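sanity check this chain:
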Amino acid sequence: MISLSPAHVHLCPRHQLWTRSTHDIPLTHLPETVQAQHRLDRLARHHRQIRQALDLARRIVEDWSVSGMPIDLGKEWTDRLDRVEAQSVSKKISAEDRGHLAAFPEIVVLTHLVLDPPTTALDPRELYLATTAELSRRFARIYTVLGTQDPLYRRFCLYRDSTSTRRTLLFGH
């Protein structure tokens, strides 16, 4: 059955199924994904821009996958992919959908930081350094600061700076 769900809803918690794919994926072996959905639900209750933040976080993570990871999350993603691919339904699911599912908990963490940045600094460099420090803390890994070439900097910090500048010009605050 095809149903329309809000942008932030990726699974059916009652049936423990990932629903953002061509075929539903059982999540019994991916409890961290279910927990991430609960966190995303809480964020959605407090933030109207959940769709935009989630899309931005997903694009940053996809860029990290293509351009090289500034923080080593490969073990977690490989482990999750192995658990997904152990299920027979995985053969019917695209690699892109499996990858999105594998990275979902980290996408939710990044979505949270997009919605509630670790600093109120307007300077993109200060925001970038505070965000990378927070990601290092949350993932208990060193975030290799790449500077202006990092998708986090280009997509989030510069975007945030340009929107706050635009807001200041339009509204005077």
